[in-house]
Write a structure and sequence with these properties.
Strand content: 15-25%
Helix content: 25-40%
Low-confidence stretches: 1-8
Largest sheet: 5 strands, mixed
Radius of gyration: 15 Å
Shape: globular
Distance between the termini: 53 Å
Structural class: alpha+beta
Order of helices and strands: HHEEHHEEE
Mean pLDDT: 86
Number of helices: 4
CATH topology: Ubiquitin-like (UB roll)
Number of domains: 1
CATH architecture: Roll
Number of strands: 5
CATH class: Alpha Beta
Strand order of the largest sheet: 2-1-5-3-4
Length: about 120
């Protein structure tokens, strides 16, 4: 039982470095709202691109699954084909564009929104 609890407390070096970067103002937290109302606090560097945010979301979910169990594989290709990331009504469609160019700042909220199917 003690070992089981220790596994849930495991923190990666990557997470520690992210927290340090936040403290020094080198990173920001983007709050990503999922359809089930869960908010994922995603840490990215200040000049992060949309692609950096997507990769950080993947990593966040990967770590969460390792800690909690549950679904073993997520098809991110399917996720990004099916959902947009949206900030204040604007779709974050250009993976190379910086988040700050969309106006995204520390603690701002980005939403997962289902794409409308084209007929």
């Amino acid at each position: 039982m003690v070992l089981h609890k220790l596994l849930f407390c495991f923190v990666t070096l990557e997470e520690v470095n992210s927290q340090i970067a936040l403290e020094y103002g080198q990173a920001m937290t983007v709050r990503v709202l999922k359809a089930d109302s869960e908010v994922m606090p995603i840490v990215v560097v200040q000049n992060a691109t949309v692609l950096d945010l997507k990769k950080a979301i993947c990593r966040f979910m990967e770590l969460k699954q390792q800690r909690e169990g549950g679904v073993k594989h997520i098809s991110w290709r399917y996720v990004w084909r099916t959902y947009h990331l949206v900030f204040q009504g604007e779709k974050l469609e250009d993976d190379k564009m910086r988040l700050k160019d969309y106006g995204i700042r520390n603690r701002d909220e980005v939403t997962f929104m289902k794409r409308l199917r084209k007929k």
